[in-house]
Amino acid sequence: QQPVQSPQAVILREGEDAVINCSSSKALYSVHWYRQKHGEAPVFLMILLKGGEQKGHEKISASFNEKKQQSSLYLTASQLSYSGTYFCGTEQNSGAGSYQLTFGKGTKLSVIP
Amino acid sequence: DTEVTQTPKHLVMGMTNKKSLKCEQHMGHRAMYWYKQKAKKPPELMFVYSYEKLSINESVPSRFSPECPNSSLLNLHLHALQPEDSALYLCASSQDRGTPDSNGYTFGSGTRLTVV
What we know:
The structure holds 2 protein chains of 2 kinds.
Chain A: E1 4-6, E2 9-13, E3 18-23, E4 30-36, E5 43-48, E6 54-57, E7 60-64, E8 70-75, E9 84-93, E10 99-103, E11 107-112
Parallel strand pairs in A: 2-11
Antiparallel strand pairs in A: 1-3, 3-8, 4-5, 4-9, 6-7, 7-8, 9-10, 9-11
Chain B: E1 4-7, E2 10-13, E3 18-25, E4 31-37, E5 44-50, E6 53-57, E7 64-70, E8 73-79, E9 87-94, E10 106-107, E11 111-115
Parallel strand pairs in B: 2-11
Antiparallel strand pairs in B: 1-3, 3-8, 4-5, 4-9, 5-6, 7-8, 9-10, 9-11
């Protein structure tokens, strides 16, 4: 089941903050966040597994709500290098111990000088 | 080695051709995946291999045939494709289920496939 991601696109000036949301109608095993630059492969940012968890590195952090149905990615003091498309990926048990990662439609983030 | 290597990077094939995409990882990951990505769309899961066994096939047409010869290699055999199959094909690997110490999925740079 594909998670719902918002907003679809956002334009920031350097130094501004942004929040990207990802939600599901069912409780999730985990949420992943990836960034993909044009013409490149998606790059893993972080994973959240526990309800109520918050995680971050440098100026990019994320949270997972208590019901494990919603996650948000926080980008603070944005830099030009943050530009790209951000995907949340949600992991659910597909049976027989297999987990599959399904991506949201993505948020295109553009940081301008 | 923390990379997933995909070959070829670009492929143009006719609708009657047979070709194969190759993917290799040496991170000891036990799960490997094929994703298809169209322009401005998210990656869409095609196949999942877990411990060298096909565990998920997302209703992919039989003209796509995956193969996992060993834990480091993943192939995607292509036959009688249609122009709408043109896309970026991404291979990824992971430690199977996500864990707190997980590094998520590691993606290769993809094969850009054009069917003419």
